[in-house]
Specification:
Chemotaxis protein chec
């Protein structure tokens, strides 16, 4: 399970240090892709395979399904942790998320998001402003 928020620097080669407490769940490999918001999402290999199986069930005749698949899989990059617990984040993904020299790494139960620090602060502020509506939506989802 991924929990918590961490700020880490990226080196000049675009390598991001993954928090130590997240690494054991990523040892079998991981996939980095575009998030729905302007952030990146990291899935452990096992979670990615399960997501891919569910996505394969969507009808290819559906424009929504094609758009979702294109966004999720077209921008995906397989990675492994190096000996120092870092992953290489391709430049096109760093550009998408606006990540340059520093990133906020957020554990979200079964996956991880990686944010530009300023965009992360803005997202938290927006969520705070809409918290009542968000909680009502979550309650309707049965959580």
């Amino acid at each position: 399970m991924f929990l918590g928020e961490y700020t880490h620097a990226l080196d000049l080669k675009g390598r991001l240090t993954i928090p130590a407490r997240f690494r054991s769940e990523l040892e079998a490999g991981l996939v980095v892709t575009r998030g729905a918001e302007p952030c990146l999402v990291i899935y452990p290999q096992e979670e990615w395979v399960a997501l891919a199986r569910r996505a394969a069930q969507m009808p290819t005749a559906s424009r929504t399904a094609r758009s979702y698949t294109r966004r999720l899989f077209g921008g995906a990059h397989e990675a492994t942790l190096d000996k120092m617990g870092r992953i290489l984040v391709p430049s096109f993904l760093r550009d998408y998320a606006g990540i340059t020299d520093e990133a906020v790494v957020v554990g979200l139960n079964t996956y991880i998001e990686v944010w530009n620090p300023e965009r992360w602060r803005q997202s938290l502020e927006e969520d705070s402003e809409n918290l009542e509506a968000i909680l009502a939506d979550v309650a309707r989802m049965g959580v």
